[in-house]
C-alpha cells in the first residue's frame, strides 16, 4: 500500500506547488505508450513508475506506539525502498511541455524530503526525493515503452515499505529463576 500513498503525495505536490489544479490539467500514472498519449487532450503530468528496488539506505528504526489505554505496540524496522518514476509532460506544443517540465525541475530540485503536510500519515518514514537515476537512461526507458525519446526527468522517491505490521510486545519478565544444571543434580544424589 505504501506505493499508492507515495503516488497520492506526489500528485498533491504537483497540483499544489506547480500548480496544476484539476480544472487545468491531469496527473497520470499510466504507462506513456502511443495509445495512451493519443488520448491525452489536456496538459498532463505523467509519473510512470518504472522501477521498484531496495534502497542502499538502512532500514528504519523499530517504533513503539500507544493505542488508547491499552498496552504499547511495537513495529520492527522497515526496509527502505526506492521507487523510480519517469516524469514527462504532455501538452499542445513542445514549447508548452518544456515550460511545464522546467517548472517541475525547478520545484523538485529544491525538495529533498516531501513536505510533512503532503505526506500521508500511514507511511513509516518521510518520502525522500531526488532527480536522476544513474542506472537507467531515459533513452532506454522510452525505447522499452515503444515510444520516441522525449523531454523527461527521472524522479526517485525513497520510503519505508510496509513490511512489518504493528504487534504486541513480548511479555515482560517478572521473575528470573536459576536453572539447574543436570550434571550437578546427579552429583548430589
Structure description:
- The protein has helices at residues 2-17, 34-38, 94-109, 138-144, 182-188, and strands spanning 25-28, 43-54, 63-66, 72-75, 80-90, 128-131, 152-160.
- It is α+β, with helices and mostly antiparallel strands and 189 residues long.
- It has a single domain, classed as STM4215-like, CATH 3.30.2000.
- The chain has a 5-stranded mixed β-sheet.
- The longest helix has 16 residues, at 2-17.
- The radius of gyration is 24 Å and the shape is elongated.
- The termini are far apart.
Secondary structure topology:
Layout: H1 2-17, E1 25-28, H2 34-38, E2 43-54, E3 63-66, E4 72-75, E5 80-90, H3 94-109, E6 128-131, H4 138-144, E7 152-160, H5 182-188
Parallel strand pairs: 1-2
Antiparallel strand pairs: 2-5, 3-4, 5-7, 6-7
Got a strand count?
Answer: 7
State the strand order across the main sheet.
1-2-5-7-6
In CATH, the topology is named: STM4215-like
Rg measurement, Å: 24 Å
Low-confidence stretches: none
Helicity range: 25-40%
Number of domains: 1
Biggest β-sheet: count, sense, barrel?
Answer: 5 strands, mixed
Question: What is the average of the pLDDT values?
Answer: 88
Amino acid at each position: 500500500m505504501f506505493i499508492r500513498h507515495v503516488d497520492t503525495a506526489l500528485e498533491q505536490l504537483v497540483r499544489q506547488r506547480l500548480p496544476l489544479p484539476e480544472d487545468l490539467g491531469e496527473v497520470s500514472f499510466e504507462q506513456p505508450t502511443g495509445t495512451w498519449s493519443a488520448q491525452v487532450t489536456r496538459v498532463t503530468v505523467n509519473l510512470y513508475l518504472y522501477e521498484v528496488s531496495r534502497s542502499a539506505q538502512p532500514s528504519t528504526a523499530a517504533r513503539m506506539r500507544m493505542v488508547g489505554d491499552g498496552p504499547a505496540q511495537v513495529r520492527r524496522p522497515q526496509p527502505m525502498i526506492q521507487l523510480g518514476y519517469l516524469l514527462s509532460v504532455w501538452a499542445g506544443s513542445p514549447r508548452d511541455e518544456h515550460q511545464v517540465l522546467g517548472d517541475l525541475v525547478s520545484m523538485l530540485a529544491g525538495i529533498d524530503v516531501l513536505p510533512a503536510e503532503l505526506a500521508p500519515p500511514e507511511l513509516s518514514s518521510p518520502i525522500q526525493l531526488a532527480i536522476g537515476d544513474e542506472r537507467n537512461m531515459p533513452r532506454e526507458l522510452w525505447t522499452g515503452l515503444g515510444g520516441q525519446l522525449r523531454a523527461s526527468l527521472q524522479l526517485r522517491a525513497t520510503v519505508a515499505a510496509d513490511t512489518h505490521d504493528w504487534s504486541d510486545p513480548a511479555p515482560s519478565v517478572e521473575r528470573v529463576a536459576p536453572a539447574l544444571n543436570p550434571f550437578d543434580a546427579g552429583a548430589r544424589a
